[in-house]
Design goal:
By secondary structure, the protein is an alpha+beta fold. It has one domain: Aminopeptidase. It is built from four helices and nine strands; from the N terminus they run βααβββαβαββββ. The strands form two sheets. The chain has a seven-stranded mixed beta sheet with strand order 1-2-3-4-5-8-6. α1 packs antiparallel against α2. The longest helix is centred in the middle third of the chain and has 15 residues. It is globular. The mean pLDDT is about 90.
Length: about 170
Amino acid sequence: MNCIIETETEKDFTEIYNLIKNAFETSEDADGDEHDYVNNLRKSPNYIQDLAFKIKVDSKIIGHIMLTKTYIERKNERLEALLLSPVCVLWEYRNKGIGSKLIEHSLVVAKEKGFKAVFLVGEPKYYNRFGFMSISNFGIEDTGYIPIKYKLAIELQNGYLADKGGKISIY
C-alpha cells in the first residue's frame, strides 16, 4: 500500500473531522467527542500546524495524528513538551502499520523541530514499542482522572525528563 504523510491543511479539516468521528465510533475507549476535541485544539495557542499530519492512500485521508504543546509544571519553572492526541486510522486500514507510520513520523519531525518530550494517554502494550514509558518513571505526576499506567512519555532529548519530576495535566 502506497501511503503519503503530509501536514494537514485547513481544506482537510472537514474530511479529518469525519475521519476522527468515524474512527472513534469503533473504539471501546472513546469519549465520543474526539472530533470536536481536535477542532478545539486547533483554536488553542497550543496548536502547531507543522505537527498535525494526515496519511493518504490515493487521495483519501485514512489516518490522522496531532501533537500540541503542553507543559510540565515544576516549583520554579515550566517546561515545554508535546501532547500526542489523538491518533486515529479508519477501521478498514487498521492493523496494517498505518498508526505506527504516523507515530514514528510525528516523533521524528517533533525532534527535528527541537521538542524534547512527548506525552500521551494510551495502552502501554502498544506505545512501549515506540519508546514510551509511564510518566512515573520520570517522577512526573498527573492531575487528571485517568489511571497513571495509561499516562506515558518519551524523551526526544535524552535526559530531558530524568529526575526532574513535576506535574502535568494530560486529561
